[in-house]
Amino acid sequence: PHPTMANVICGGITDSPGTVNSVETISLARFAIEEHNKEHGGLLEFVRVVNEKRQLVAGMNYFLTIEATDAGKKKLFEARVYVRAWQNFKEVSEFKEVKSTEVQEFKHVADSYK
């Protein structure tokens, strides 16, 4: 099995330690920002992925906490990107700015699905 997939439970949201700097995760975060910018006329610029969780469904949901700049000011965003790799399909199903306290809430809610 894929090393990052070994402990994935279908339907459960799991941490993905060591993957926030992976090419795949960074690519998904950049995709989420690009889609947000296209849909909302934004000018967000990717800085880094702060956190990643995954949920195995009929495909994979990636829950990303992303740091980006907006007019030079650093902000945090939560994005959910749904991927069906075998169909070469991906979509951003959620993208929102969050305050630092909300990031902790997001992590807590995601943890409750384990």
Automatic annotation (TrEMBL):
Record keywords, A-Z: Protease inhibitor, Thiol protease inhibitor
InterPro entries named in the record: Cystatin, Cystatin_dom, Cystatin_sf, Prot_inh_cystat_CS
GO molecular function terms listed in the Swiss-Prot or TrEMBL record: cysteine-type endopeptidase inhibitor activity
Domain of life: Eukaryota
Cystatin domain boundaries: 8-98
Pfam families (UniProt xref): SQAPI
Family indicated by similarity: Belongs to the cystatin family. Phytocystatin subfamily.
Name by which UniProt lists this protein: Cysteine proteinase inhibitor
Naturally occurring in which organism (per UniProt): Prunus dulcis
Organismal lineage: Eukaryota, Viridiplantae, Streptophyta, Embryophyta, Tracheophyta
